Amino acid sequence: MGNKVLLIEDEPNIIEAVSFILSRDGWEVKTHSNGHDAMQAVRERAPDLIILDVMLPGKSGFDILQEIRGDTEFADTPVLMLTARGQSKDREMAERAGASQYMTKPFSNADVLAAVRALVTP
Amino acid sequence: MSILNALILVCVLYVVFLFAVAFAADRAALRGRGSWLRSPYVYTLSLSIYCTAWTFYGAVGFAARSGLEFVTIYLGPTLVMIGWWWTLRKMVRVGRSQRITSIADLISSRYGKSNLLAVFVTVLAVIGATPYIALQLQSVTLSFAAFAETDPEATTLPDMQSTALWVAMGLTVFTILFGTRNLDANERHHGVVMAIAVEAVVKLFALLAVGVFVVWGLSGGVAETLARIEASEISRFEVTGSRWVGLTMLSAMAFLCLPRMFQVMVVENEDEDHLRTAAWAFPTYLMLMSLFVVPIAAVGLDLMPSGANPDLFVLTLPLMDGRDGLAILSFLGGFSSATSMVIVAAIALSTMVSNHMVMPIWLHLSGGAAVVSGDVRHVALLARRLSIAGIVFLGYLYFRLSGSGTALAAIGLISFVGVAQFLPSLMGGLFWRGATRTGALAGLGLGFVVWLYCLFLPSFGPSVVLPQAVFDNGLWGIGWLRPRALFGAEGMDPVMHALMWSMLLNTGAFVLCSLLSFPQPIERLQGAQFVNVFEHSPTPGGWAGGMAQSEDLLIMSQRILGAREAQALFERAARRQGLVGYLPEPSPDFLQELERVLSGSVGAATAHAMIGQIVGGAAVSVEDLMAVADETAQIMEYSSQLEAKSQELARTARQLRQANEKLTQISVQKDGFLSQISHELRTPMTSIRAFSEILRDTGDLTPEEQSKYASIIHDEAVRLTRLLDDLLDLSVLENGQVVLNSQTGLLSDLLDRAERAAGVQGGDLRVERDRAAEAVALTTDLDRLAQVFINLIANARKYCDGRPPVLTIRTRQSGGYLVIDFTDNGSGIPPEKQAVIFEKFSRIGETKAGGAGLGLAICREIMTRLGGSVSYLPGQAGAAFRVSLPVANRMAAQ
User: Which of B70, B276, B742, B849 has a CA positioned 20 to 30 A from the CA of residue B413?
Assistant: First the structure.
């Protein structure tokens, strides 16, 4: 099983925090911070897990998720969605779009780590 | 001091005096004082530019050569003033309601705003006026020479041509100075009009003084003078009836058609009612001007040596008797007549040349782009100034080339016949709805050719332009094409001959072609407006525009009218339509108003073309065509009302749709408000929680890492606090619970403070300010106002993408408000976002750490509390915000 994680998020401090937590756990973390060419980044990196923010500049996380699921190569890649909008309809939208798991900000570091481990190790 | 030097000195003093009069009148008008400037008597006196040097000197010469014939020159205008008063009133009414700038503009407007026609009329007017300007220069130099001859000290005669050149240059400078102050040819030239009125008084006074001197001084009384007249040739001249009637008609026609008369009578007219006074006062003036003509002529013929030029009797009689003072006064009279004519003619013609020839060519060369970029104002003013110089120079050139032998009266009549060619198209346009552009072109063209061939070219004398053979045998040897005996009409007076044929053929072609051709729809519409100017309410529609064009129209108008005037016009129009901001609906009414205002600056045809370029080719709609197809005015009216109704319905629908869209938007925003707050609060909290857990749970952090993560937590906590502050601030402002803290301070200090607080120093953004204008003391809540300035400057620093970024801050006072514009050179805000930038949580750019999208919402609330406003100013180079604040220190009652 691989250990490549692609983090798509635009807040620099959150990028730093998540990268720190995951790298210390042995994951190889790459980051990308805008919506326009997120799909391109996904194709280049071919990650084992994608962590995707909902509110991105250029394109929403839901749209990016649809594109990911539309590509046969990544149809089964686990996607962990992060959102700062904690309404239930956002959760429904994420599930419909095919998110593997959905977490609301702020999160506990331990929960993120547990979720990542659970998603990659079947 | 010799008399010649005295004359030059008096002349210079007189010119300085005229400059002072014009300057003072302009100043008085500018300050809104001087209601006497708008008196009907000033108007009447300004009409007296009809009496040029030709009438001042030439009338006596005319009388000495052909007896009472000179009276016709005064009789024609008198008959027009008294008998055709209602025609003049119609011309003035049309001129004012259509913002007509010249006779070329009037004719072109009437015949479907045809620029071809305008060019034609302009060329004809320039050719017709050139000999006349030459005539004025000639009269000044001749009278100057008359003085020189009597001066024993002057060993050599002054060079005539250099005198004429000096006079021409002086007149050009005067005309440019006072005739091109403002671009809008529709605004009155108060200075020029006042100077002309003064000159009118001077010339009348001078002629009367010479007359009194001749009758009671030289001749010895009324009875003796009558006896002299009886004895002189004047009483023996045969006056042929046909020539008498012909000349009276000719001067009447010229009075209506001369570009300079049109300028003072219609363009400079302040009030239609002034015509009422002029109807008796102007004939009285003419009567006084002609009172002493015959006595002077008779006494001159009797006393002066034979061979003396009778044109100069007015001057030479006092000189002969040693009355130098009177002679100088008489000279000033002639000088006044000449200069006033040249000044007004140059203004009138330059308006025509620049509006109908230079501007269209320039617009064509620079393409449609010129309408929205490039400075049309400067080009127009420059064109007008160059045209003035060009026209006066043409006159000088004609003077040089034609020599100075021809009698004054002859040149004047040639000009008169030339401009009389406008009459059929002009009168037909005002009174006959069937008149068409084709007819006008054909009539004008034919009349012009006949005038050129039969009168103008032969006037240079045989073998100068036309070879002798043409005079004797006709063009190409065809006998009935002889210029002085067209179609075999031999033995006629050349002027009468040319007048008869040109007017006959002109009118014939005009009527015939009008009947045979079918007018374009726009000609029909304009025709109805001109012919029925007294019945028509403001105009059936012509333009149909969409919303998106308003901003383009604003940009274009700013180039022509200047930013302030254009913005005021658009704001007024928007307010009339019940809208806020600077972009009114491009309703037909508004477009028509805009076209009229623009045509005051660049002429009707050009203004029409410019609006057409933006609004699109929809100048004539299907409704218009239907209206035109039906002849009766009632149905046209009815149809235009229907059109207006349907336009209004469409407009109401559009406004409802906009309101609905806005409501939906607000509802979506309200819905998203919680979600937004949630997002804005959770994002910094995420970082805080994540890093505090890292600090707590990770044992082996280096001291650098520890301090870095701690400061991230600190920064995010600060961001969170700021957000909460903003939210509270906004909530307090919105609920009106804010307490304003009034202080007094200088605007410039406040802006300095805002610049510092917005972090301009050390950044890329350059701020351009006008500190002189900012020295304004304010009494308001300065801290709150500074908050607004900081926000606007910081936004420019963050979002302006100009290379390099520049923010321009301009301050001025207008209508009781202090207006401060913040304009940057970036790419601005797209129109679809302009409506929502003042809403909460709407960001201009992409999501970026730092801005929560509350800044402009807070600014708007603050300005409302301070009794002012902040708004987005569309149509500028980049993003532009306008802050306005009442100057009076009224504060919103809290």
Answer: B276
DSSP secondary structure of B743-761? EEEEHHHHHHHHHHHTT-T
Which residues in chain A are closer than 8 Å to B723, comparing Cβ atoms?
A: none
Distance CA A22, CA A33 (A): 17
DSSP 8-state assignment for residue B346? H
Cβ of A13 within 8 Å of Cβ of B712? The answer is yes
Residues paired with B745 in a beta bridge: B778
On chain B, the residues whose CB falls within 8 A of the CB of A19 are: none
> Is B686 close to A11, i.e. CB distance below 8 A?
yes
Q: What is the pLDDT of residues B124-144, one digit of tens each?
A: 888 888 888 888 888 888 888
Q: Which of B678, B698, B712 lies closest to A86 in CB terms? A: B678
Mean pLDDT of the residues in chain B: 78
Contact B686 A84 (CB under 8 A): yes
Q: What tokens does B236 get?
A: 């023996």
Q: pLDDT at residue B526 above 80? A: no
A25 interface with B at CB cutoff 8 Å: no
Contacts 24+ apart (CB under 8 A), A67-75: A67/A39, A68/A39, A68/A42, A68/A98, A69/A97, A69/A98, A71/A39, A71/A42, A71/A43, A73/A43, A73/A46, A74/A42, A74/A50
Euclidean distance between CA atoms B865 and B894, whole angstroms: 9
Contacts of A20 in chain B (CB under 8 A): 694
Tokens for B780, please give them: 């308001």
- What domains appear along chain B, each with residue ranges and CATH number? 3-364+390-403 (1.20.1730.10), 421-536 (no CATH), 540-629 (no CATH), 650-734 (1.10.287.130), 743-886 (3.30.565.10)
Q: Which residues of chain A, if any, have pLDDT below 50? A: none
Residues of B in contact with A107 (CB under 8 A): 686, 689-690
Name the CA dihedral angle for B659, B661, B663, B665, rounded to a multiple of 10 degrees: -150
Residue contact A109–B694, C-beta within 8 A: yes
Q: How many CB pairs under 8 A join A and B?
A: 69
Please give the C-alpha separations between residue B865 and each of A53, B737, B894, in angstroms, as whole numbers: 39, 10, 9
Phi, then psi, of B478 in degrees rounded to 5: -85, 120
Q: For the stretch A83-113, what's the b/e string if a residue is b when 16 or more beta carbons lie within 10 angstroms of its beta carbon?
A: bbbeeeebbebbeebbbbbbbbbbbebeebb
Task: Quickly count: other Cβ atoms within 10 Å of residue B722's Cβ.
Answer: 14
Q: What is the rounded average pLDDT of the residues B569-573?
A: 84
pLDDT for res B151: 63
Environment class of residue B612 by beta-carbon count within 10 Å: exposed (0-12), middle (13-18) or buried (19+)?
middle
CA distance B63 to B239: 11
Q: Report CA-CA distances (Å) from B69 to B118, B235, B408.
A: 35, 11, 14
| Confidence (pLDDT) at B418 | 86
Query: Which pLDDT value is given to residue B368?
Result: 54
- pLDDT exceeds cutoff 60 at B1: no
Nearest to B727 by CA among B793, B675, B795, B680: B680
Band (pLDDT 50/70/90 cuts) for residue B628 is very low
Of B391-400, B479-488, B666-675, least confident by mean pLDDT is B479-488
Count of CB atoms situated within 10 Å of the CB of B480: 11
Query: Of B334-343, B475-484, B757-766, which gets the smallest average pLDDT?
Result: B475-484
User: In terms of CATH architecture, what is A4-120?
Assistant: 3-Layer(aba) Sandwich (3.40)
CA angle B510/B516/B521 to nearest 5° reads: 90
Q: Which residues pair with B809 in a beta bridge?
A: B769, B822
The closest of B480, B836, B430 to B668, measured between CA atoms, is B836
pLDDT above 70 covers what percent of chain B? 81
A105 touches chain B (CB under 8 A): yes
Instruction: Judge whether residue B708 has pLDDT over 60.
Output: yes
